[in-house]
Amino acid sequence: MISSRILVIKLGALGDFIQAMGPFRAIREFHREARITLLTTVPFEALARRCGYFDEVWVDERPRAYQIPLLLALRRRLRGAEFARIYDLQTSSRSGFYFHMFWPGSAPEWSGIAGGCSHPHDNPARNSMHTLSRQAEQLVCAGIAKTPAPDLSWMTADISRFELEGDFVLLVPGGAVHRPAKCWGADSYGALARHLAKTGLIPVLLGGLDDGEVITAIEKSCPRARDLCGKTELEDIAVLARAAQGAVGNDTGPMHVIAACGCPSLVLFSGDSDPTLCAPRGANVSILRRDPLTRLSREKVIAALQLRGP
């Protein structure tokens, strides 16, 4: 088992970062005596510091090819740290390029797909594997036999400020602005919210500031819905998920947090993403897929919704 210094590379996005929590833990437990550094991007810096798997966190400024001074600075930092092993969990062209920053000279042991690395994940079917299975197999190739499921039990928060009285269901109707096809639509979520309200459940609307328009439309359609748009941190979402009766949402980052916390989750997919590769995983996750997603009937979603037992 290698000690000394270890680097893990994971740059994003949110769903991928949450699904990497299992590999993070596996690496931490395998290298108990090592000093482990994570190289990530700004949106995940604070989360990485809080999760407890890393001794330090570096922020990758993602320099472009023409930003020579920044590239050289990153190269000096990588080479100067004298890492014994690097786990590239991003396995992108960018992170693969970082492997070649060690030339000339010898690179540290490297787990990933960079040509010439010491511990390649060379399964030709790797791109057809779900993220969790692919990363677990990559770690097996590096000598780590078992990778646990993501554990978000360390995410805690006081949600009393939301004053949620009664049973509630989480709705996550937004998503990336540049991927509108991945969204079911405000009218459909509004109808779902009204159905939940009629059964005595409180629809709780989650999203970021970019989701304000769709969430406002749902709230107008169902006045009983609670709008928490832009009011929650990821830790709040985790605690809400543990208390919720269930959740419905598009293929977007917060659903990975909700599912990993054990909340009965129904995730809606369009043809823009493949659930066999990237679906949220958890103790109770269901998937509905329709392309285009706007043709998915409200009745089908209501029928597929699973809630916690009494």
What brief labels describe this structure?
12 strands, about 300 residues, alpha/beta, Rossmann fold, about 35% helix, about 15% strand, 2 domains, 12 helices, 6-stranded parallel β-sheet
Summarize the structure.
The chain is an alpha/beta fold.
Major sheet description: 6 strands, parallel
Strand segment count: 12
Proper CATH architecture of the largest domain:
3-Layer(aba) Sandwich
Radius of gyration: 21 Å
| Percent strand | 15-25%
CATH superfamily of the largest domain: Glycogen Phosphorylase B
Overall pLDDT, averaged? 96
Domain unit count:
2
Percent helix, as a range, is 25-40%
Structural class: alpha/beta
Helix and strand pattern: EHHEHEHEHEEHEHEHEHEHEHEH
Output the CATH class name of the largest domain. Answer: Alpha Beta
Low-confidence stretches: none
Q: Give the distance, in angstroms, between the N- and C-terminal Cα atoms.
A: 47 Å
As for the CATH topology of the largest domain, it is Rossmann fold
Total helix count? Answer: 12
What strand order characterises the main sheet? 3-2-1-4-5-6
Quaternary state reads single chain
Shape by Cα distribution: elongated
Characterise this structure.
With 310 residues, the protein is of the alpha/beta class. It has 2 domains: 5-141, Rossmann fold (3-Layer(aba) Sandwich), CATH 3.40.50; 160-304, Rossmann fold, CATH 3.40.50.2000. It is built from 12 helices and 12 strands. It has helices at 14-19, 21-30, 45-51, 68-80, 93-99, 131-141, 186-198, 212-221, 234-243, 253-260, 275-278, 298-304; strands spanning 5-9, 35-40, 56-59, 85-88, 109-112, 119-120, 168-172, 202-205, 226-227, 246-250, 265-269, 285-289. The strands form 2 sheets. The protein has a 6-stranded parallel β-sheet with strand order 3-2-1-4-5-6, sandwiched between helices. Strands 9-8-7-10-11-12 form a 6-stranded parallel β-sheet, with helices on both faces. The longest helix is centred in the N-terminal third of the chain and has 13 residues, at 68-80. The model has no long low-confidence stretch (mean pLDDT 96).
